[in-house]
Design goal:
Blueprint lengths: L7 H12 L10 E3 H10 L10 H11 L6 E3 H15 L5 H12 L16 H6 L22 H4 L18 H7 L1
Helix pairs in contact: 2-3, 3-4, 4-5
Main location: cytoplasm
Pfam families: p25-alpha (PF05517)
InterPro entries: EF-hand-dom_pair, TPP/p25
Length: 178
């Protein structure tokens, strides 16, 4: 192995992380085409010039078993061996493969920050309850927290008393006294 070589175990570790990505039933022993493409994209193997997404798909199809839809770690290595000389032109096969391994090791699927929270002035303006007027204002308390169903619907008073009657709730006391 060349100087600064990467251990196969480290590459296998990254392979497993990508293999289980987005698939709750995956064991990490096999990788599907989607995750292989993701690994190539996240680890910058797919640089858009020497290697494109099409190249990645072709190599995946080439190394997998005829009827299979996944590749094993051995087939994954075979795929990398095919991609390495293309990605690092002018290097020996072994050197190119080592550099490719170097790109993969320690990586995990990048899904952090895929959906960023939109922070726009418009969102702040629309969610500022202090600027609400009319009946919409009734849906929030003084702190700006929503009142839930009570703020959306007129909940009828089923107490049996007329609205604004001052003696609400005093009937029981009057009956007891009598």
């Amino acid at each position: 192995m060349a100087e600064g070589s990467v251990s196969v175990a480290q590459v296998e570790n990254a392979f497993q992380k990508f293999a289980v990505h987005g698939d709750t039933k995956a064991t990490g022993k096999e990788m599907n085409g989607k995750n292989f493409a993701k690994l190539c994209k996240d680890c910058n193997i797919n640089d858009g010039k020497n290697i494109t997404t099409t190249d990645v798909d072709i190599v995946f199809s080439k190394v997998k078993a005829k009827s299979a839809r996944v590749i094993t770690f051995e087939q994954f290595n075979q795929a990398l061996t095919e991609l390495a000389p293309k990605r690092f032109k002018g290097k020996s096969k072994e050197e190119a493969l080592q550099q490719l391994y170097g790109l993969i090791v320690g990586k995990e699927p990048a899904n952090v920050g895929v959906t960023k929270v939109a922070k726009a002035a418009a969102v702040d303006r629309l969610t500022d309850t202090s600027k609400y007027t009319g009946s919409h204002k009734e849906r929030f308390d003084d702190s700006g927290k929503g009142k839930g169903k009570a703020g959306r619907e007129d909940v009828p008073d089923t107490s049996g008393y007329v609205a604004a009657y001052k003696g609400t709730g005093t009937y029981e006391d009057k009956v007891k006294d009598a």
